[in-house]
Structure prediction request, 50 residues.
Amino acid sequence: MVVHGYGRTVIPEETLTGPESELINLGSVPLGKYLFSGNNLTRDYINLGI
Prediction:
């Protein structure tokens, strides 16, 4: 089974300072690509709330 969907990410404006300000200019770059390109986060299981 393949499930396609869309997600929405809401980020508080006050967190978009310092290195995180790069999030403002992501454009069409997937958020996951940005988040997991560094060494401080790792992927884990995805839980679906259906």
